[in-house]
């Protein structure tokens, strides 16, 4: 009887210590993907530094929210768009 009570008491205390509460929130991150005729195109996101695209399906990580994307070909502006990205979503921009 003593051992049964001691065993039940040990099981009771062991089961109380493992429960963890809280809220887990993923970092807000989204992606912009450039498709189409991307070779030798220059891209500026939010008036940042110009990046030259040299491969198909180029993907850039950005924070979720509104972004201004400017795309140049042969030093001429061919696209000036404001896009809104959402958390965990890939936004595709096609370059003609």
Please explain how this structure is put together.
There is one protein chain. The chain has 96 residues and is an alpha+beta fold. The protein has a single domain (28-95), classed as Immunoglobulins (Immunoglobulin-like), CATH 2.60.40. Helices cover 16% and strands 47% of the residues. The protein has one helix and seven strands; from the N terminus they run H-E-E-E-E-E-E-E. It has one helix at 2-16, and strands at 30-36, 41-45, 51-53, 58-62, 65-73, 76-85, 90-95. It has a four-stranded antiparallel β-sheet with strand order 3-2-5-6, with no helix packed on it. The mean pLDDT is 83.
Query: Can you name the CATH architecture?
Result: Sandwich
**Cα Rg:** 26 Å
- Judging from the principal axes of the Cα atoms, what is the shape? rod-shaped
- Average pLDDT, to the nearest integer? 83
The largest β sheet comes out as: 4 strands, antiparallel
How much strand content do the residues show? over 45%
CATH class: Mainly Beta
Secondary-structure blueprint of this entry?
Blueprint: H1 2-16, E1 30-36, E2 41-45, E3 51-53, E4 58-62, E5 65-73, E6 76-85, E7 90-95
Q: Which descriptors would you attach to this protein?
A:
alpha+beta; single chain; Immunoglobulin-like; three-stranded mixed beta sheet; 1 helix; four-stranded antiparallel beta sheet; 96 residues; 7 strands
Give the structure's gist in a few sentences.
The chain is α+β, with helices and mostly antiparallel strands.
């Amino acid at each position: 009887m003593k051992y049964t009570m001691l065993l039940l008491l040990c099981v009771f205390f062991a089961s109380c210590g493992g429960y963890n509460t809280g809220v887990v929130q993923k970092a807000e991150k989204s992606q912009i993907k450039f498709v189409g005729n991307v070779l030798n195109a220059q891209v500026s996101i939010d008036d940042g530094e110009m990046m030259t695209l040299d491969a198909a399906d180029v993907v850039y990580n950005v924070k979720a929210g509104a972004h201004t994307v400017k795309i140049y070909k042969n030093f001429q502006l061919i696209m000036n768009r404001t896009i809104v990205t959402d958390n965990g979503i890939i936004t595709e921009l096609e370059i003609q």
